[in-house]
Amino acid sequence: MLLGQPQPERSIGNQQAKPWTYWWWMGNAVNENDITQQLEQFARAGLGGVHIIPIYGVKGYEKQFIPFLNDRWLGVFAHTVREGKRLGLGVDLTMGTGWPFGGPGVSTAVAAKKWKLENGKLLTELTRQQVKRPAPGGEGLVLDYFSQSAIEQYVKRFDSTLARLPEQPRAVYNDSYEVFGANWTDNFLAEFKNRRGYDLTTQLTAFLDTTRTETSILVQQDYHQTLADLLRDGFTKTWTSWAHGHQYRVRNQAHGSPGNLIDLYAVVDIPETESFGSSRFPIPGLRVDEQYEVDRFGTPNSLAMKFASSAANLTGKPLVSSETGTWLANHFQVSLSQIKPQVDQLFTAGVNHIFYHGVPYSPPAEAWPGWVFYASTNYGPASHFWPHLPLLNQYIERCQTRLQRSKPDNDVLVYFPIHDLWATPAKSAGGIHQLEVHHVERWLLPQPFGQLCEQLLDRGYSFDYVSDDLLNKLTVTKEGIRSPGGATYQVIVLPQTTYLPEQSLRQLERLARQGARIIVDGQLPAKAPGFYKHAARSAEIRQLAKTLGQLKSVTVSANLFETLRQSNVRAETWAAEGLLFIRKRQRDTTHYFIANLGNRFRQNWVALSAQGQATRYDPLTNRTEPVLTRQGPNGQREIFLSLEPGQAYFVDVSSAKATLPRSASTTKRADLSSQKPMDLQSPWQVQFLRGRPALTASVTVPRLGSWTTFADSADYFSGTVRYSTRFDRPAGKPDVSSYQLDLGDVREVAEVRLNGQSLGTAWCIPFRLSVPASQLKPTGNQLEIDVTNLSANYMRLYDRQQPDWKKFYDINMVDIRYQPFDAGRWKPTPSGLLGPVTLTPVH
Predict the structure, then answer these.
(1) Which domain holds residue 360?
(2) N or C: which end of the chain has fewer CB within 10 A?
(3) Are 503 and 536 in contact (CB under 8 A)?
């Protein structure tokens, strides 16, 4: 085999382990030469693929706009796929421009609809919603997602265009459900009668009643169940079937839908969740944008993310993706150190296929800052962190390689009682429940289900969600409760539930009679959902519940967590100290990915539920080390877990004897709590190197601080500044093998050299590097730290001097509050090495 020759299986695996990115084609004003140049940049930076989204255009480039799906567009798309193959980059494609699906081919007959009441009758009218952020020529009505015939008509356009190309995307994509106010379709009444067993118009009074009487609740449950069925069958299954017929995979963001997210995610190949905004982790030194409006946009939540990963785990889908880093902070103000904790949270929630949001296509010849998408974060070549993005990409690739190769190792299945949610007042437009990721406090967290899952998470239980539909597909083996995708669980937990379908109770009884362990929180449900023959069906529910409660493997528990403990369901009790984790298995090895996204844990002896030989793999350094172990007070083997706020790594527990690579370190316990650090307080020389505006200042400062105060115009400088000092080796014991260099507060990335030799680059919290003791001289050690900051300070100047860079159609440029972008009002952002810088011996 020749070096560099394509290796399809290996290449694809490596490709999927790397992070991918949204790639907005602004106005589709693209050409082959620039596509090739940008793809080559992406490949060098360590990206694995691109997701093309045609979007609104740039003023002044109208003659270069290419209509979506015309021959010229298909030509440049085919070129992109070919170049992607050459470079090892995958290509996905949004099936439309902007979002949601819609556009010029969508007539009023197949457009999104809502019901209206006229002369005592339910009639159909258009929502009139237009496609959001369309590419030129992509304007038009939004599609009716509840209509199978509408979907079939919509995809025909791709049969005669995209599908005839020899070069095809890996996957087609649908964005988060943002069809606002749509709550109806032309044949809704017929579908309702066929699926629910009665005519909705006979219960019109109850349907319109907002006082939440029992009858109105039951009718609303039926109404929502019908919408959910139509969305699953009319859109998701129809679209997926069409895509599979053309050998495309399907990526889908089901969140925001008026349906059961688990079932919608379960239909597709790659379920995709979303991380929008900042989670506001209490990690010391982690900055959040003060202008981000939590009440308006919400914060990322692990429980919302688990709908996608649960569906994948139960159905055996190997990939779970996420839109990552959307509006993490304002434009030109996002750092790599802010992105990493959000990625770590996604990993612990079961995501293993990161998609950055994102990179705007921008001609290489375009002056800085190039073409910019209205929503931050920009991961592209014009970003201030682009030179160091390969470090984050490498970290993600190492993590995702392990996460994609391993299988879920969760013990608990938690039933999602969606009928109880449908019994509550809807808070979305059109009077329907839209299960969005932004505001879980509106629909998820107030429910007993959400409250229980928060406690399971805090107490260290590994769990997935299960829907009514997937309950029907569970079986029981000697290993436990088996999902259709091959995942095995030890127990099903039924939260406090009021309404439960008879079929679900029958399935629970079937599983219990086969030996499945089932724990009911509080009491068994007593009501059937839905209006049809409700009294008789509820009587059947009560009888089924009584029978179920008497079965040997079923426990109706007044103390759920005590029952879980008595049932020997594994719990990682150390998670209660503020740690997030995911536990997975690969053959005879259990992988723990553990992230400290709080400020409560530093180091401690902990007992893992998996027992065996433990090693630690750090994806930041790509090093595997042995873990110090001991026999704990209760006889369990314990490991010494040292994990500072902001850190994350794998602990691998093997039933076989662990073998370390030759390059592995055999360091002793790195307990730094009793070691006295040396503060490097010598005067520091500060030299401005490269950046905007050009500065050549060089100053000596007695103490570290933001360079914005060190020289004239420095508060506008964006670029790299060198901090250097000299120090003597600390006096210490001869058994010191290395030192820990702690840079303190770094704004934003620090490349470090000691005596002319690189120590590495610190780009995430905590900003620490290891210093081999052999690299220190007794006296006169020279430490050089090149710090690169954000581009925000220069944008303060540039936006005043060159405001015409904001030349985009549609929404043009807005800030994090969706107000017109104006960086000229910003205050200087602290930049440089703020310290303190310390050196601590490691014994």
Answers:
(1) 8-94+269-405
(2) N
(3) no
